[in-house]
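2024-03-11 09:14:02 DEBUG pipeline.ingest accepted 1 chain
2024-03-11 09:14:02 DEBUG pipeline.ingest length=201
2024-03-11 09:14:03 DEBUG pipeline.predict start
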Amino acid sequence: MSDTSPTPNPPHRLPPVALIIGALFFLGLVGLMLYGVSRSDRPDRDSLPSALIGKPAPDFSLPVLHDPAVKVSGHDLRGAPYLLNVWGSWCPTCRDEHPILTRFAETKRVRVIGYNWKDERADALRWLEQLGNPYMVVVADEEGRTALDWGIAAAPETFLVDGSGIVRWKYSGAITQDVLDRQLIPALEKIEAGAGGKTAR
């Protein structure tokens, strides 16, 4: 009677095709990471394309935050460019951009309109009282229905609309001094050049 031990099975090896696919997948992930890092210091990293650019701004009729009995429409704002800034008291990033937006509004280069989004009126009023009110007027969209027409996905978001009611620029994220200098002001200068220098009324 012979004592024979079972022959061990050879180690299972992945087929060459699987190894190639795995390597390509890994290289793809590395490429995406490098692309993200390369764009992380770009001033437009938070700037998202908008289907509204070059098109008429969606019309709206919303109550004024400080006096809900009064309504302001997009038609009322025609005649001169305006900057529509979407914010909420619940938004920490809005607080970060507020001092920069305030300083810009003080230049009176363009009308700055506040768009209070999905906020409680009392909270919004308290927020402005504490931080200051840089807006010519603030409209309130408590339910967020009108925001759907504008494609608003988060706060803060900012739109530059010319005197004819055409959206010329959009920025998603907090406005910084760099964004002002490199994006907003050049976009405003193009509008001013087309309007013979006439902007705020």
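2024-03-11 09:14:41 DEBUG pipeline.report The radius of gyration is 26 Å.
2024-03-11 09:14:41 DEBUG pipeline.predict end
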